[in-house]
Each structure stands twice: as C-alpha cells, then as structure tokens.
Design brief:
Length: about 550
C-alpha cells in the first residue's frame, strides 16, 4: 500500500469561507431554513431544518462487482427547541410542547418483576413559584426534540430501511428476529439523541418489544465527545479567540450586525458567550424559523415594538455561522489535530469495526452500527475527513461509511478504479457536482450519453442525476466537464487519490455525506468512492493510533 498522507490540506475556496462575501452577499447560498420539507426536485440542497440523507430516489448503488459487507453511520439529532443558554433574557412569546411527551421510566429485567407504567414528563409552570425562568416560557425542555423533529426522525429511519433493505437487500427484514443481532444503535448522554432514536428505530423496524441503545459513561463518551482533552479544547479556543487575527477580523466585520441584534435581544454586550461567535444567535433564530415561528422584535415596556430581526439580518447571521464553522473545523491548519484528538476515540472504534470485518474476526454479527450525535460530533468527523467544502452540519446531517467486498472474477481486472476528474474552466453547477460525486456511475454513463443520440424531449436522465432537473443540455455539459481516465493494468487514472488502487484485502470504503460521495481535500482520500480500506485505516491509525493508542497522549500534550 502506498504511504498515506495524514497532514492537513486546505479546503476549497468558496463563498462560504470568503469573509468579504459573507458581509456583502444576500441570502444564504440557496439553503433552506424555514421547513423540513425539501421539494423532491431539490433534494440534496442544504436544509438546516432537515439535512439531506441517504434516500432511495437519490441513492447510487455501487457497481455490481462490489458486495456491501458493513455499514456504520453517524448523524446529528433532528430539529429541536433552542438550548436555554441560547435564548434571549426575555422572549416575547412562549414555546409550548403539548403535542408530544418525553417518556422516562425504568423497567426491571428480573424474571416475574412487575411491569412499569409508561410515564412521561409534562411540563408546567407553578403559579406559586416566584422564580421565573429566563428565555422562552412554556412547557418545553430547552432543548428537546419537537414533534416535527420526531416526525423527521421517523422518516429518516424509514428512508434508511428503504435503501439498505428494500433496494440493497443488506439489512434484515422487519419480520426477521435476526435484525436485533445485526443492528446496533448508540446515543450520547444528552437526552435529545434518545428522543430521536425512539422514532428512528420505529421508522426502520417498528419493533414490538424494547430496543437497547448503547451509551458510554458521560465522563468518557467518545460519541458526544465528552472525554477530557485539554489539547483539543485549548486549540479550538485559540482559533476562536480575539488574539487570532483572522477571527478578530471576522468579529470586527460582524460588529454592525451585533449592534442590531443586541439592541433587539437585550443580550448584554459584555456577554462573551454571545459575542465570541454568532453560534447563540444562529441557534436562536434558526430554531424559530424551522418551526414557523416569527423572528423576534424588541420588547418595549413588555410589548413588541416595530424594531424586529428582519430576514436579511437572519440570513447574515447564518452566513457568518457557516464561515465560523468552516474556519473552526477546516480553514485553520490546527483544526485537524484538534478534531483528531477530541474525536479520535470514536474514529479508533470505527477503524476497529472496519478492520474486524476485513480480517474476518468480528466478535459479533453486527453489520449496521448507528450513532446518533450532535453538531460538534459531526463537525469533528468532517474535519478529520478533511471535507473539501465545509458547512455547519444541520439537523439530521449524516455521514455513512459503507464497507464493500470486491467480488472475485475469472478475468483480469484493472488495477485502478475509473475516476472522473474535473477539467479546467468547468462550469461547477449543481448538476456537475452531483455527477462528480458519483464517480463510478458517471464513468459508466457519460461515454454513452450525448445530446445528438438523445435529443431534447426524448432523453432519459437517470434518477441519480436529479439535480440536473431532466435538462439534457445540463447533463451533456456536466459530462463534458469530466475526463474519464482509462483504467488499465499498467496505468493509473488521472487525479486518483494517492491511496487509490487495488485493495490488498479486496475491501473498499465509500463515504457519503448528505447521501452523496464525500470529497476530501486530502490527496490520499480524495473522492471517497471505493477507496481501499487499507488507505482509510492507515489514515485513521496515523492520526490516532491503532485502537486509539495515541489519543490520551495527544489530549494531554
């Protein structure tokens, strides 16, 4: 296997990480902030309220000579109420959650023990209690997954089952008891991940008896992550500091925005938690908009005034938020080491699962591991993978690791996968991006597709190119933007990742983000479509050590 590059590589320059654009632009890059429902024709577009995930109508199956052997995925919880710490000191309207219940009870597993009643929390405000909470009034927890977020969770589970069972015949069926031995779910100690799990598991398997959710101790959880890692904390704090010239410049650029927001919200200008980044304002405003609640207005004598947060102001907050997450997790060279240390144990766990399947030494029958986590978890995962275009991972955002076994054939096969490569001066529209992300399908499809052979009106655009919206010219243009390198036994394709080629074990990994193949800035990872598993394992081992042996040392350095 070729040596694996474990160094940091800069992400692509884009509108997101261009501070001048953040300040001067309007809108939010066509992203969605006001509904969970993305139109089918636009599915794949960034939707903060309900991020795109693996779904049957956009999923591109692997080539037929690859057999799916194992899947591990991690995704953020679905939409929720804002955190109490992200609420204004006094909110102008309440937030109620009478349309759902949060069930909490214990049940004995001792034989013949009495059954538990199904009890749930019902929030209420005592008229006697003289202490009034700050922020939103009402009967919700802050945070808790909302009724709409629970619906999104259920649909997420149903969509995954439709792909990995109905389409691929990989997952066991709902009526087979073997699914309990082959499918595992894991959550963090934050209750909102368990709230999502209950609905998601039902969307996948509709079980009639309890399902365990694996959870590590709150002090050492690798999924949230919550284990102590001073190196990571100090590094991220140094990035997110006024002593960092780049970060200070962005705070200076945001000062007019802060002045407007502080005047309306009543947040103290000396509250550093609100003023070291736009995170708190972002969470507050986006939670409202995802649940069709009005943007806030300034309270004068306890009543709404006409001075309100406009959509233009909210959009600027969202643009700054994306810039901050790109800066914190990708643009700063030190971000890789910080993320690898704080998410390193989880990556070591992932590597051990992949390695066990590859080596035929899996200690159990689990073929599907499902992790429900947070934006901090997802951001670190994308940081370690060095995603080329970093965004703030929205609600339900998902990364999937698919491990494939290449089938043996009687005829000689190429030593290299055929990978499309962008040519210079390519028009990088959404149609092209979708084609480029599905490298194997593009390589097979483009050579046979021309507008002459399939004139407008009679052409059939495949379902996996839904971003092309059936436009034959757009598809032809996208095809012309890729150069399909010819794979031979002696020549490697153009711009193949350093670690690409033939796997020693015959196992390959495909990584999906938002249902599409993830593209890494790291040349050893590149377009993570049928990457030899040895390359990914070498990358993870190089950063955190086999079985995470380097993590404790890195965290205390």
């Amino acid at each position: 296997m070729a040596s694996v590059d474990i160094t940091w590589h800069a992400p692509a320059a884009s509108l997101i990480n261009n501070l001048t654009n953040v300040v001067s632009a309007t809108g939010v890059y066509g992203y969605i902030y006001n509904t969970s429902a993305t139109p089918d024709s636009q599915y794949g577009v960034y939707n903060w309220c309900n991020m795109p995930h693996v779904r049957k109508d956009i999923y591109t199956p692997a080539p037929s000579n690859y057999e799916l052997a194992y899947v591990e995925l991690i995704h953020r919880h679905h939409k929720r109420t804002p955190y109490a710490s992200n609420s204004f000191p006094v909110e102008s309207y309440p937030w109620t959650c009478t349309d759902q219940g949060l069930f909490y009870f214990g049940r004995s597993f001792v034989p013949q023990a009495p059954e538990s009643a199904e009890t749930y929390w019902k929030g209420y405000a005592s008229p006697i209690n003289p202490f009034v909470q700050s922020g939103f009034l009402g009967d919700c927890q802050f945070p808790q997954i909302t009724a709409e977020g629970l619906d999104d969770s259920h649909q997420h589970g149903a969509d995954l089952y439709a792909v990995y069972h109905d389409l691929l015949s990989f997952l066991p069926s709902r009526d087979s008891p073997s699914w309990r031995e082959q499918v595992s779910y894991r959550v963090t100690n934050n209750q909102i991940t368990s709230q999502v799990a209950g609905m998601l598991v039902n969307g996948m398997y509709a079980p009639t008896s309890p399902v365990p959710l694996s959870v590590q101790n709150s002090n050492v959880d690798s999924l949230e992550p919550s284990y102590s890692c001073s190196f990571s904390s100090n590094t991220f704090n140094a990035i997110k500091s006024r002593s960092n010239p780049t970060w200070a410049a962005h705070l200076s650029a945001a000062s007019p925005l802060y002045k407007t927001l502080d005047d309306i919200s009543g947040v103290s200008t000396t509250d550093d938690g609100w003023h070291i980044w736009l995170d708190h304002y972002y969470d507050n405003l986006s939670a409202r908009q995802c649940h069709s609640k009005p943007l806030p207005c300034k309270l004068v004598d306890g009543k709404n005034s006409t001075t309100c947060v406009t959509q233009e102001v909210a959009d600027e907050v969202y643009r700054f938020g994306h810039w901050e997450y790109s800066r914190l997790y990708r643009d700063e060279p030190s971000s890789l080491a910080a993320s690898a240390a704080s998410m390193g144990v989880w990556f070591a766990e992932l590597a051990s699962h992949l390695r066990a399947v590859k080596d035929g030494k899996a200690a159990d029958a689990i073929k599907w591991r499902h992790n429900i986590a947070h934006d901090g978890s997802m951001s670190r995962v994308l940081s370690v993978l060095q995603i080329d275009d970093m965004v703030w991972p929205g609600m339900g955002s998902e990364v999937v690791f698919e491990l494939y076994k290449k089938k043996k054939t009687a005829t000689p096969t190429s030593t290299s996968a055929t990978t499309p490569t962008a040519t210079l001066k390519c028009n990088r529209d959404n149609c092209f991006r979708q084609m480029f992300a599905s490298s194997a399908s593009a390589s097979a499809f483009c050579p046979t597709f021309t507008t002459a052979a399939q004139p407008s009106g009679s052409a059939t655009v495949p379902g996996w190119l839904n971003n092309c919206k059936g436009d034959v010219k757009a598809v032809s243009s996208a095809c012309s933007c890729v150069v399909t390198a010819t794979a031979t036994a002696t020549a490697a394709p153009t711009a193949v990742p350093t670690g690409a080629g033939e796997s020693e074990s015959g196992y390959y990994v495909r990584v999906l983000f938002g249902g599409r193949v993830l593209r890494s800035s790291n040349p050893s990872l590149g377009v993570m479509d049928m990457l030899p598993v040895e390359t990914l394992l070498g990358y993870i081992d190089g950063l955190v050590g086999v079985d995470g042996t380097l993590v404790k040392g890195k965290c205390s350095s």
